[in-house]
Every structure is written in structure tokens, then in C-alpha cells.
Design a protein that fits this description.
The chain folds into 3 domains: 62 residues, no CATH class; 42 residues; 33 residues, no CATH class. It contains 3 helices and 12 strands. Helix content is 18%, strand content 34%.
């Protein structure tokens, strides 16, 4: 089962919803879900919104303007042994190391000792871009030599895989 967004077009997405439709003609604004060959509709404009059976999956009960809900962004989870940060209070983050990753909780070690918290309270210390920059800098320091000219260093970096995107001809004309 896909992990869909929790809110869409200003409405809280009801549990199990897979598709959405805007108000169009006689069709109400709401969500659709399928379960055991049955088709259900959740009318957002109803005073008491709830799932209602409207037909079988193979029927033509769904209008053509129904769209699939977007998937929710995947949350970041540290790997075992990875240094990261855990939320320890409102707007307070502490460095820690992930020791165990369960289905709901992560056990970690921090300066204050060992603890556990739910997965959504963890974040990486560095973004992927920061990690790549750090790796690039380490490689540059590794291949540089005392007294090496800047030109030679750039050549060595290129020979070791450093690449940048060349500007397009149209970009050059605009400068």
C-alpha cells in the first residue's frame, strides 16, 4: 500500500484514500478508496463526512476527472551507527548515534546517555550536498602537495573525477 499525503487541497485525507476529485457538475468534492472489490466515496462537502459504499470496483461509478493522490515524501531514517540529531525538547536537538532501529522507535546513545524516540524525531547532521562537499574537500586535500600550483591542483581534481556542468551557449550570450 502506498503512503499518500495526509492533507490535500485543504482537506484532511481520510484513512485509506487513494484518489481525489474536485467538484465538477453533479460530482461532489471528495476522496475514493477501493476495498475487497468495493468502491467507497468520502464526500468532503457533507455535514457528516464518512466513507460510503457507491459500487463495485469494476463498475463505472467513478468519474473520469478523478486523480490519484500524491505520495507523501519519504521520511529520513538514520542507519545503525550513523551520527545524527534527535529532538530532546521543543526546538532542542542533541547529537546522537543510532544504535538500533525498530519498526516505530530508534534507540540511540547521546552525551546524556541512552534513550529511544519515535522515528520522526531524528534528522541528519548534514545534507547529502554537505556530505558530497566534505568528500570533495577531503579528496582535494589528499591529492594536493605542498607547493602545488592552483592550476596543477585543478588538473589533479579533474583527473580524479571532479566535474562541473559547462554553461550552455545561450548562457554565455546573456553575460
Amino acid at each position: 500500500m502506498k503512503n499518500y499525503v495526509k492533507e490535500y487541497k485543504g482537506y484532511k485525507v481520510p484513512e485509506g484514500a487513494e484518489e481525489y476529485q474536485e467538484r465538477k457538475g453533479d460530482w461532489f468534492r471528495g476522496f475514493y478508496k477501493e476495498s475487497d472489490d468495493a468502491l467507497f466515496f468520502y464526500n468532503c462537502e457533507d455535514d457528516n463526512p464518512k466513507w460510503r459504499l457507491i459500487g463495485c470496483v469494476s463498475s463505472d461509478e467513478k468519474p473520469s476527472h478523478v486523480i490519484q493522490l500524491p505520495e507523501a515524501p519519504q521520511e529520513w531514517i538514520p542507519e545503525i551507527g550513523e551520527e545524527c540529531e534527535v529532538m530532546t525538547g521543543p526546538f532542542e536537538w542533541s547529537k546522537c548515534i543510532a544504535d538500533y532501529i525498530g519498526s516505530e522507535f530508534i534507540v540511540y546513545t547521546a552525551n546524556s546517555g541512552e534513550g529511544s524516540s519515535i522515528k520522526k524525531f531524528f534528522r541528519p547532521l548534514k545534507t547529502q550536498q554537505e556530505k558530497e562537499r566534505e568528500a570533495f574537500e577531503l579528496k582535494a586535500f589528499e591529492i594536493s602537495e605542498v607547493g602545488m600550483s592552483f592550476h596543477d591542483l585543478i588538473g589533479e581534481l579533474f583527473d580524479n573525477g571532479a566535474r562541473f556542468t559547462a554553461p550552455k551557449a545561450a548562457d554565455n550570450d546573456q553575460k
